[in-house]
Amino acid sequence: MLVVGEKETRRISPGYAKTADHPQKLADVLKHLPWWVKTETYVGDGTRGLLSNEPLGPAELAPGTAGTDSSGVWWASSDCGGRPAVHVMWLAYPYDRIVADRLEALFRAYVDDATERRGCTGVTFPEKADFARS
Q1: pTM for the structure as a whole
Q2: Strand, helix or coil at 131?
Q3: E strands in 4-134
Q4: pLDDT in the model for residue 78
Q5: Which pLDDT band holds residue 64 (cuts at 50, 70, 90)?
Q6: Mean pLDDT of 33-50
Q7: Cβ–Cβ under 8 Å, residues 79 and 87
Q8: Is 133 a residue whose pLDDT tops 70?
Q9: Residue 125 burial (C-beta neighbours within 10 Å; 0-12, 13-18, 19+)
Q10: Can you give the C-alpha Rg of the chain in angstroms?
Q11: Element housing 11 (H / E)
Q12: 26-40: per-residue pLDDT in tens?
């Protein structure tokens, strides 16, 4: 998991607060709501039962599928040595909004690296429209 440090949060937060519908107080972000991103790859049996964090109806992060949901979860699929793989990126709110213009590049870089290191093939990414929706 990567967390935005205090110095960067203090630098970014004022600009975000000016444009946000519901800005968070800097003190609250630093103490209770850190901005973070987490990536994980699940292979084989580890892909069973994966769900997003969507409170109104979690999405199934099933092998062979790819997408995103409003809870800041992105996923892609591939085949790693004959076993299904699901590559997942979680982003904390509102960090997903702050880096929205970089999400596709960030996610693709993670998946490309993860699949290359594992020798995976047949990568399925979310549709362009999914990235634009974020």
Answers
A1: 0.83
A2: helix
A3: 36-43, 67-69, 73-80, 83-91, 121-124
A4: 98
A5: very high
A6: 92
A7: no
A8: no
A9: buried
A10: 16
A11: helix 6-19
A12: 888 777 778 889 999
Dump pLDDT digits (tens) for 70-118: 888 999 999 999 999 999 999 988 888 888 888 899 999 999 999 999 9
Q: What is the DSSP letter of 120?
A: -
Which residues have a Cβ under 8 Å from the Cβ of 117 and sit 6 or more positions away?
none
Handedness of CA 48, 54, 55, 57 (dihedral sign): negative
Q: Three-state secondary structure along 88-117? A: EEEECCCHHHHCHHHHHHHHHHHHHHHHHH
CA–CA distances in Å: residue 37 to residues 18, 29, 49: 23, 15, 21
User: Tokens representing 26?
Assistant: 């800097």
C-alpha atoms less than 13 angstroms from C-alpha of 104 in its C-beta half-sphere:
11
Closest CA to 63 of 72, 52, 54, 50: 50
CA distance 44 to 84: 5
Q: Contact at 8 Å (CB) between 103 and 134?
A: yes
Instruction: List, in sequence order, every residue forming a beta bridge with 40; answer none if it has no partner.
Output: 88
